[in-house]
């Protein structure tokens, strides 16, 4: 049940919200209601995985309670290892078992005819996000950054909290602790701001990302050997905007829903396409994942504390892991390796060059680098990736022309403007004027309300298109 | 002790009002579920859709999410404003981008709408197409014709026109069109030549209609419809009566004469493709003909009044059949659409759908039988074979 589906918009959320509001100031009752609703939502989408997740959460909770400061350091360390391993095994089983088995069979091929059986395991929606959050809880508890959740109810609410359950942002328990312990009562401002944020997200996802996906999918599904460079670049441009509006749109919806319930979630995107270097891009894109990688992988590996070579190695490892996190496929690994390489080069000289370049050039160059990365990310296989790269370079003999849907130029213009306008000199005064004018904000709210209605209309009329990140 | 928040009480009345508003939508959907005869709906949607698979209540269907999908689809159908919002979406995309939201409709030049299968057929015509189709359909037609001839009854085969074949210039750039102009234009002459050689009685209303292009101030296919308009129908009805009279050996009814005028709007059958687009605002502004038959009422003593007649065919028999019934003297004519879907007319006039084999038996008694196929779908209709089996089984 995704946020823009009619069942969620017009049944699940109104009922949950009505119940939540109706419970008034009964804190425990509201927490129970929210947890029940969150579990129900996840059960609806993943009935087989929820019991596993509940048991896993019980284990986390038990381990966190056992990791008190009174325990010997060695014991606490082993409890942490147990918890993190259990969570990683969960992720490996559901996400990587097939990939590992397939590749192991390939590797064993020359030596034996025996083959490991390929298990048909369905990847639960949001498993990567949930597992990473559970790992942050255990690690932060171990580090003393977080206190263990006082009750399983509160820990379970953190894990299952439905606005962020399916595709993040990846949260930290101690950042949510106070909100979970005593949820604020919902105010009119919470509803208004939350609804507008949700409407913004729905508009991005349903009115921009999904229609752009149509041509992006067609371009990447075509045999790259017959794709003209113009069409290859058009397909890549569509995907570049699709992935941004799809994912940031979802984050907006998550943040908006949480706000409507009186919760504040951290931001996940900060205008990433106006970045002037790849380093800056990763500080603006999927910020919760970048932060996780930095705090729970990069820093424990040594970060930049052991010389340049070790720093670059750590960056590579982190981005390889990030690539794998996105999907169990060699093209995701390649994407991670590509980012690791470019980030290393960024540190060596690229970032310095771009810093000296005019902003337009720096942004264009960064966007170009990111788009090549998206080409690797979107390709269904390494062979396809090589072919598509050839098409981009004009190396393919042009075959049949793909029909370009009539709305693509307008969507590219609208999407490109939204994504890049913050980089223009006009943006700061316009933003200030907007913030300072009630009339402008009312007009903005009206526009968002209209877009929300149009997005609902399209969601009712259009065929289902899943979020890209849900299967991570 | 129940934890309470350490700040001033929020407004319970405002909260209750918010709760009531939030519950309106789910309750409205529930109302539509419980009381479908009194359902609350903002508008309705046009077109036919495949029925949703029945909800399978089992653990397996929960585990593989089929149940959830069924329930989600079912809930969306219950929403009171669903038709309105779908029309809003379709209208916005059509106005802004020229998008036709229905996959089974294509828009050509001049706002002409058509089902893509007509273009696909037209563009697939090759040098052997007509020969192949003739070889397949003629044996069945011959069996029917001979069976009825032995019983002294009248039969002929009616070929109706395709919009794509009538105005190909409006459509052939919409899809890849591999066929040559020669093959496309040779199709009907070749098909009818084979029918003649086989001794099959037929009326080529398709060529008759195509010859009308440019004759009137408007096209004889409406822009927003897939079927011919009343001008083409009038010509065909006239030719039908002439053919009936010829094959009967006497004047069953006077051959129709008519006048026409052009009005500045369209409605009804002339808008059937537009309706399927489910726009917020129907495009009714295209001119359409109003045909007035001048001698249709001269039925006193005419043999057609008592004639047990039947037409079996596609949706194209509706209009000419209606002209024969209501504007001429064939008051006992019954139209069987696709042989099973529904029947209209007869004596007494009635409409029935999803016909049972028993309800088809009166066809065996028809003194005049007209079997129709659109030129685009010759041999693709299964009702000719079924009709033959039905008639021959009756002895």
Report on the structure:
The complex is a heterodimer of chains A (472) and B (395). Chain A is mainly α and 472 residues long. Helix content of chain A is 72%, strand content 0%. Chain A has 19 helices and no strands. Chain A has helices spanning 6-22, 27-45, 49-66, 73-108, 127-143, 152-160, 162-165, 173-181, 188-221, 229-260, 278-284, 287-301, 308-326, 330-356, 359-378, 382-392, 408-420, 427-436, 438-461. In chain A, helix 3 runs antiparallel to helix 4, helix 14 (330-356) runs antiparallel to helix 15 (359-378) and helix 15 (359-378) packs antiparallel against helix 16. The longest helix of chain A has 36 residues, at 73-108. Chain A is globular and about 65 Å long. The two termini of chain A are 17 Å apart. Chain B is an alpha/beta fold. Chain B has 14 helices and eleven strands. Chain B has helices spanning 12-34, 59-63, 66-78, 82-97, 116-123, 129-150, 163-166, 181-197, 205-210, 230-248, 272-277, 318-327, 357-360, 383-393, and strands at 106-107, 113-114, 154-160, 202-204, 258-263, 288-293, 309-313, 334-337, 342-345, 350-353, 368-374. In chain B, the strands form three sheets. Chain B has a seven-stranded mixed β-sheet with strand order 4-3-11-7-8-9-10, sandwiched between helices. In chain B, strand 1 (106-107) and strand 2 (113-114) form a beta hairpin. The longest helix of chain B is centred in the first third of the chain and has 23 residues, at 12-34. Mean pLDDT of chain B is 88; it is low at 1-8. Classes of the chains: A mainly alpha (472), B alpha/beta (395). At the A-B interface, helix 1, helix 2 and helix 19 of A face helix 1, helix 3 and helix 4 of B.
